[in-house]
Amino acid sequence: MPSLRRKRDPEGRMSLGDHLRELRNRVTIAGVAILAGAVLGWVYYEQVIDALTKPLQDLQAGREGVVNINFAGMTDAFALQLTTSLFVGLILASPVWLFQIWGFIVPGLTKKEKLIARLFVVAAVPLFLAGCYFAFIMVPKAVAVLLGFTPDGAYNLQDGSQYLNFVLKFIIAFGCAFLLPVFLVALNLVGILPARAMLKSWRPAIMIIFVFAAIMTPTPDAYTMIFLASPMIVLYFASVGIAFLLDRRKEETKPDWLDVADDQASAL
Questions:
Q1: Which tens digit of pLDDT belongs to each residue from 249-263?
Q2: What pTM does this model have?
Q3: Which string of DSSP letters, residue by residue, matches 211-260?
Q4: What are the start-end ranges of the E strands in the chain?
Q5: Is residue 152 within 8 Å of residue 63, measured between CB atoms?
């Protein structure tokens, strides 16, 4: 496989072709890792599908009628197993594809900043998995509320593909939402998003978080939305605090002549 080492000119720049080749290499590595995880998902499909459909089984146990998934088409069962396996592969391969994203976003860091970046890659994996876990424990409540309008004794056979797509997207969306501080710090490391700008934008940021939480939680109650939004807000302000520490370190290591230039620019 081609090397991921970047060929830079003396000024540290890369050509468009180099960017595209590196993007191809990193996407290839992430794709291979996801496929490897999907193989495990295929092998343990029965256990995974039982866990994902458990909310329907629990709902059926507490009421009359039939509540389960249904396979209407000839190929639906195969497509469902394939989709579920890829979902498992995406979660299992999260350390690999998160590292590839970091490696592509933050290329021009110093050795100390690269060390910090690696530490945040380590933090990104448990954050992603924590988001997936939060969604997993919320799925039963969402299913119970949405199917609670079905009259007693009526059959409620959910299309297997639609039900699993809803559950899988729900879980992945929560996992990605918990990656918010990682990407905020990444933007701060590359100089795109200063800590002061993040702090000044806390009001619109909280509003966006609540809008996102409202969209991603299909239940009509506000508790589920707050359940998702609260940790995201905490993670946002934690990333602001980390960004301030990184900005302070950058100021301490900045050459004196740059401080003079900044003062002169401010005077003008």
A1: 877 676 554 444 455
A2: 0.70
A3: HHHHHH--SSSHHHHHHHHHHHHHHHHHHHHHHHHHHHHHHHHS-HHHHH
A4: 67-70, 156-159
A5: yes
